[in-house]
Amino acid sequence: MKEEILFGIHTVMEALRGSRRAFELFVSRDSHDRRMEKLLKLATEKGIAVRNRDKQDLSRLCGSEHHQGVALRLEGFPYTELEDILNTWRASGETGLLLALDGVQDPHNLGALIRSAACAGAHGVIIPKDRAARVTATVEKSAAGAAETIPVAQVTNLAQTLEELKEAGFWAYGTADSAAASLYGQDLTGNVVIVIGGEGEGVRPLVRKKCDFLVAIPLQGGVSSLNASVAGGVVLFEAVRQRLVHGKK
User: Fold this and answer.
1) What 3-state DSSP class applies to 216?
2) Would you tell me which CATH number, out of the four given (3.30.460.10, 3.40.50.1010, 1.20.1250.20, 3.30.1330.30), belongs to the domain 3-75?
3) 3-state secondary structure of 232
4) Which of 121, 227, 244, 97 is nearest to 175 (CA)?
């Protein structure tokens, strides 16, 4: 069984509240953060051993100095099967909202996108198994615990997955700076999968062909493109805005 080390107070807090099996909680001896009391209480309730460590030891354990005095050893991140995400969505009776990422490689971008999807009430995030960032401790810290609250699926072929989603009743909206259609002229109130491309290449041609619509976010300044995580957040919350206006959940 794979294990990993998570760090950062909020990330560890959400992990302790989640369903993953945790083994040890490491706490800095010189930490004075009041939130530590909640962490220690959660660990005690779950029967998780607590170990005191020097700050330097924690930095070596986490591979980072940005651990906020706490780290958690637990089982590896549990990806969800795509079919399970779809089944949960169907059972919810809600209008579907999914986020598909085509080759996002920066772990901070992936974490931010997972967090945005969770905050937007999306039913899941879909990432490729190859040539893309996977969910790591860095991603989970960037997501600030959101990775514990939204299912993430890894798929072998994203283009084929989009076909499956379209057969399930979703419309695929891909983002492209060169697209003639504006995001703000689209109807995102139905079952929608939003496709965000990687940092350099954007949405790849094969995946682009599987999208029902290609849309651009209108930019007003002198910069020609948005960061992938920002673009994802803009599109997700345009969908949220439209659904609130039309009284859809």
Assistant:
1) strand
2) 3.30.1330.30
3) helix
4) 227
Of residues 109, 139, 105, 120, the one with CA closest to residue 193: 120
Q: CA separation (Å) from 14 to 33, 58, 106, 174?
A: 17, 19, 22, 31
Give 222's pLDDT tier (boundaries 50, 70, 90).
low
Q: What is the pTM of this model?
A: 0.86
CATH class (in words) of the domain with range 82-245 = alpha beta
Radius of gyration of the chain (CA): 19
Sequence spans of domains, the chain: 3-75, 82-245
Of the given ranges (29-33, 91-95, 115-119), which has the lowest mean pLDDT? 29-33
